[in-house]
């Protein structure tokens, strides 16, 4: 059996999830912690590849012995999260663990992912949200906010999201199904939430940047449909900063939920 874990991390000081030769990564930290706990090198397979500076409230990954599809250990599964945390830095924590079959794949068995993008909309910056939200100081009026909500709804459905993908990306298909997209206000904090069966490189950050362009009057809400059809990255908004993005939820079949 493999071990499926849920992880929370602040991505500010990491070069993304996946191991990189030029800096610290979340995957490298998890590999080191797993080897320290179990006594042998482990393979860590994540549900996604979050970028540098991106955070996760619920990231899922499997642990198995290096080159194998099982994890031999006598440590009770309920104790593994705390045991791994003892070997992890303060900005990474394991919150849950569950045994899954060898055939389970942390990435390919995902049914849906939910991302949240946070925008701090106030003239003054908030030190407590530094590196956790995009500081956008220009006031967004109720009318502008309503336009953002209208635009977000146009993301919902099965579309070709090539216009919302970083240029130069190499993928087999740019078609994705967005099941929900919403924009809400919590005081001065604006939250853009989007759920889909998969995401392209920088897709959520470009969606967020496009919503700000809508608020600024540069793009009308009903232009989202034309931008999607155009498949032209230059017609969408800017790529919003990584600091505001957080992976909020990963959905599997009920039997794999922790």
Let me know the number of strands: 10
**If helices are DSSP runs of H or I spanning 4 or more residues, what is the number of helices?**
5
Strand percentage lies at 25-35%
User: How does the major sheet shape up?
Assistant: 10 strands, mixed
- In round numbers, the mean pLDDT is 96
Q: Considering the protein shown, what is the CATH homologous superfamily of the largest domain? A: Pseudouridine synthase I, catalytic domain, C-terminal subdomain
Query: Structural class given helices, strands, pairing?
Result: alpha+beta
Q: Give the name of the CATH architecture of the largest domain.
A: 2-Layer Sandwich
CATH topology of the largest domain: Alpha-Beta Plaits
Question: How would you describe this structure to a colleague?
Answer:
This protein is an alpha+beta fold. Helix 3 (142-153) runs antiparallel to helix 4. The two termini are 15 Å apart. Strands 1, 2, 3, 4, 5, 6, 7, 8, 9 and 10 form a 10-stranded mixed sheet that branches. The chain has helices spanning 26-38, 80-85, 142-153, 203-215, 223-230; strands at 2-9, 42-46, 55-65, 92-100, 112-120, 134-135, 157-160, 175-186, 189-196, 245-251. The chain has 2 domains: 2-109, Pseudouridine synthase I, catalytic domain, N-terminal subdomain (Alpha-Beta Plaits), CATH 3.30.70.580; 112-249, Alpha-Beta Plaits (2-Layer Sandwich). Helix content is 20%, strand content 29%.
